[in-house]
Amino acid sequence: MSFFILVVVIILYWWLRSRRKPKLSPYMLERFLKIADPVPLCGKPDVVWETRDGSLIVGDYKSRENQQVYESEIIQLSVYKLLVERTQNRSVADYGFIHFKNRSMKKVSLMKEKEIITLYYRYWNVIGGEVVACVANNKNYCRYCSHKHECN
């Protein structure tokens, strides 16, 4: 009978272990990264985790209670992904995590490299006057924008 209980406990242990979320260990914390290719970018990811299988995941901490994820934050994490890929020569997940003050987190899909490059050139075309900027869909974006005087 005790052998049977031991077998059940071992099976239960392995089943519970297999259902756990993947273990993440910190790989990099607030390290300044800079690249020149494919476009010049720099940034300091709050955290980059390494999974058990060796892949990397970018993350950002937000000090607000509001758990809304903004497009600008997805862009920020996407840039971090590109920076980490290029500087570490490692595979980075196509998703990241945004952590909020109340310890909750949201998983977000990240942009592709081509989309980041397109945004980079659009930004400089707006600054250079070659492209007319337009007001964002959400007026909250415009409130703190240093380029709002250039919008129509």
UniProtKB/TrEMBL annotation:
GO terms for molecular function: ATP binding; DNA binding; helicase activity; hydrolase activity. The keyword DNA-binding applies. Residues 16-152 form the PD-(D/E)XK endonuclease-like domain. InterPro entries: PDDEXK-like_dom_sf, PDDEXK_AddAB-type. GO terms for biological process: DNA repair. Coiled coil: none annotated. Keywords: ATP-binding, DNA damage, DNA repair, DNA-binding, Helicase, Hydrolase, Nucleotide-binding. It comes from the Bacteria. The keyword Lyase does not apply. It holds the Pfam family PDDEXK_1. This is PD-(D/E)XK endonuclease-like domain-containing protein.
